[in-house]
Amino acid sequence: PNISRVLLAIAASPLLSTSSRNNPCCDALSDISNIMIASDPWEILNFVDIDKQLASKLTDGHIRDILVRIDALHKLKTLKLTGCVNIVGHGLDPLRGSTILEQIDLSLVGQHEDPINNFYSGAKFSEAVVIPILDSIIEQNGSSMKQLQLSYRWRQCNRRQTLARFLSRYNRALDNRDIKCTTCNGQCAVFFVDLEGGDYLEGEDYGQQSITCYECTNTFCSDCEDPLFCDECQKFYCDACGYQGGEICGFCGDRSSYCNGCSGGKKCEHCGTYCCDSCGDLYNTCGACGKFRSR
Question: What angle do CA 250, 253, 256 make, to 5 degrees?
Answer without folding.
Answer: 90
